[in-house]
Amino acid sequence: MDEELEKKFQEAYQIASTTNIKLPPDIMLQFYAYYKQATKQNNFTQPSGEIKLKNAFKLNAWIQINHLSEKESKEAYIKLVHKYLK
């Protein structure tokens, strides 16, 4: 894997995980899905939240992008951070 891409992805993750910016739920689902696809690929696991409906939306968002590669997912995640959090 490209070291530069990995560095940018980790930086983007730090920004996303420490922001105080409140994003709409549909954007948060995109962050979740791209992150999971980038880090787990198609090894789908049940989301750990307590709200079943929210978990269903998370899993659905991830499944919808399961055609993306690890690289494509990381690039999309980075773009989301730049679009909404920078």
From TrEMBL:
It comes from the Bacteria. InterPro entries: Acyl-CoA-binding_protein, Acyl-CoA-binding_sf, FERM/acyl-CoA-bd_prot_sf. Residues 5-86 form the ACB domain. Keywords: Lipid-binding. PROSITE patterns: ACB_2. PANTHER family: ACYL-COA BINDING PROTEIN 1, ISOFORM A, ACYL-COA-BINDING PROTEIN, ACBP. This is Acyl-CoA-binding protein. It comes from Lutibacter holmesii.
